[in-house]
Design a protein that fits this description.
392 residues, 17 strands, 12 helices
Length: 392
């Protein structure tokens, strides 16, 4: 099949819900990809932060292969080793108490919302179910997580949206307090607002928010769908902010390319969701769990330290370019936002970069870079060279 045939097949049989670039991807190795015609691309996207250990990783692939031959799926009505071992590793490396496994980031955040409302109902009864989120946030594309998302542009078409959410300004504790009330049960935040433009929250704000939640007995919920699993240089971003959330969601990079999500809870929240209150048919399935265990093995402390070093290297390289179309960088680890200056658009810049062999993303008004965490210095240099040439 060639590119034109693939595009025709897509248009004939696939709902056109994605604004795809006119590029196909056939295979990859490390952080390098090739299309059907054999053209090479340096990947600064990792499937929107999913392919955390790159492409063609043999350790990851062998874990999937071995598990597929052993046990591909079994109902959660029975015990199996992979999910239990994965939960143990996640809890040991985060200090959280227990895990729930699902299939996606939106599903993980739905779980956080259910957890908070059930916790509050058990402690206080009805009437305490509102969850505060931040303006410019993004929490998913189900009806409930769209409502939780603090961007009006997403609150279209799919009416009626859910009740029970209010929005505060990021980095403004007074705004959070103003939106509070006797009906609030939790606050849900991204520590780096990803889709909003790669905007890290200020440490003082996050620590103040944690203190406020403790005083009010609001659950502090952290959405780490994009920031988790090593993306920011620690296994989870909250480990850099000096706070201990009541629950934290994860997805994207956890299984290195297979569909998996979930959330971790602290000891206070461990008993909240009992039998029959929450479930997922495919959640914690053996193959995805085995893949996730391989990802965590690869992302040991040395690898996480390297993520920070690579992020610093990329950001320094970008800022040295001093091109008229881009400005300062921001972010944590290998989650990088690049300012696009007035008179230029991030979508136009992204299209030019992709056309010249560098895959990038957009977020809010910025360019967004989420390379595989295993990207090499040579691949980063190749990407920087393309960026330099195109922006010139």
């Amino acid at each position: 099949m060639n590119h034109a045939q693939l595009v025709a097949l897509d248009h004939q049989h696939t709902l056109q819900t994605y604004g795809r670039f006119d590029v196909d991807i056939d295979h990859g190795k490390g952080a390098t990809l090739w299309d059907l015609a054999g053209r090479k691309y340096i990947d600064f996207t990792s499937g929107i932060g999913v392919c955390s250990v790159g492409y063609g990783n043999e350790t990851w692939a062998k874990a999937i292969y071995d598990q597929a031959l052993t046990l591909g799926h079994i109902s959660n009505l029975f015990y199996s080793q992979p999910y239990a071992q994965l939960a143990n590793t996640l809890c040991e490396r985060t200090g959280m108490a227990a895990a729930f496994f699902g299939n996606s980031g939106a599903e993980a955040n739905e779980g956080l919302i259910k957890l908070a409302r059930k916790y509050s109902f058990g402690q206080y009864g009805k009437g305490r179910s509102t969850i505060l989120t931040l303006k410019n946030s993004f929490h998913g594309r189900t009806i409930t997580t769209l409502t939780a998302t603090g961007q009006d542009v997403f609150h279209q078409y799919f009416f009626p949206f859910m009740e029970g959410f209010r929005y505060a300004d990021a980095n403004d504790l007074d705004s959070v307090k103003a939106q509070g009330g006797d009906d609030v049960c939790a606050v849900l935040v991204e520590l780096v607002q990803g889709e909003g433009g790669v905007l890290p929250l200020e440490s003082a704000f996050v620590q103040g928010l944690a203190q406020l939640c403790a005083e009010k007995d609001w659950l502090l919920l952290v959405d780490e769908v994009q920031t988790g699993v090593g993306r920011t240089g620690t296994l989870f971003a909250f480990q850099q902010y000096g706070v201990s959330p009541d629950a934290v969601s994860f997805a994207k990079g956890i299984a290195g390319g297979l569909p998996m999500g979930g959330f971790l809870v602290n000891e206070k929240c461990r008993p909240v969701l009992g039998p029959g209150t929450h479930a997922s048919t495919f959640g914690g399935n053996p193959i995805c769990s085995a893949a996730a265990r391989a990802v965590l093995d690869i992302l040991d402390e040395d690898a996480l330290k390297a993520v920070t070093e690579k992020g610093n290297y990329l950001r320094a390289g970008i800022e040295k370019l001093q091109k008229k179309s881009i400005g300062a960088t921001r972010g944590l680890g290998l989650m990088i936002g690049v300012e696009v200056k007035e008179g230029y658009t991030n979508k136009a810049l992204a299209a030019q970069l992709i056309e010249n062999g560098l895959l990038v993303l957009t977020a809010g008004p910025a360019l967004r870079l989420l390379p595989p965490l295993t990207i090499t210095k040579d691949e980063m240099d190749q990407g920087l060279a393309i960026l330099d040439r195109v922006l010139e």
